[in-house]
Amino acid sequence: MATPLDAVSQGRLILGLGAGWNEPEFRAFGFPFDHRVSRFEEALPIIKPLLREGWVDFHGAYYQAHDCEIKPRGPRSSGPPLLIAGDQPRILRLTAQYADSWNVPFLSAPQSLLELRSRLFTACAEVGRDPTTLEVTAEVALDFPDSGSTPPSHMQHDLSGSTEEIANALHQDEQLGVGHLMLYCSPSTTGALSR
């Protein structure tokens, strides 16, 4: 599915992957919720070679990909870049092994990135990867307190304040090495997006 989407987007797709956390989403699609990280860990050596080389043959505990091939290939010979989101040790190790980009989930204060990034550097050292070869991205939940809305419960670590304070924090993220931001506004309205 990623290959034709990459073609339709003229080679702009970034394939974001993660082990998941929201059990109702798993139930809605009939996916098992147990062993999420183990299943994710086993999926990556299928996904990455399929996108990079166009072929894989894999036999695991959860997944089988027998002589699997992607034809036609997408617009980029190496496929879309892989972005992995998460901040737990096992996910960080998988990020260091397989990803092109690492997404920091729900980054609030820019300085909180420093501790998370040090854990990523440790994971990179464990697998022998130069951490500067991983782009850092961040999902930032923006809360405008004067709007009277309440952020969703899973957005506990939001960035709030005046428009100027938020802009300053986002600029600090850039200075700390964040190359791509994904913003979630609360409230999710045209007015909040404009701000």
What can you see in these coordinates?
The protein is of the alpha/beta class and 195 residues long. The chain folds into two domains: 80 residues, no CATH class; 115 residues, TIM Barrel. The chain contains seven helices and eight strands; from the N terminus they run αβααβββαβαββαβα. Strands 1, 4, 5, 6, 7 and 8 form a six-stranded parallel sheet that branches. A two-stranded antiparallel sheet has the order 2-3. Helix 5 links the parallel strand 5 and strand 6. Helix 3 runs parallel beside helix 4 and helix 4 packs across helix 5.
Residue-averaged pLDDT = 90
Structural class label: alpha/beta
The number of domains: 2
CATH topology of the largest domain: TIM Barrel
CATH class of the largest domain: Alpha Beta
State the helix count: 7
Report the CATH architecture of the largest domain.
Answer: Alpha-Beta Barrel
Please mark out the parts with pLDDT under 50 across 5 or more consecutive residues, or reply none.
none
Q: Specify the helix fraction band.
A: 25-40%
CATH fourth-tier homologous superfamily of the largest domain: Luciferase-like domain
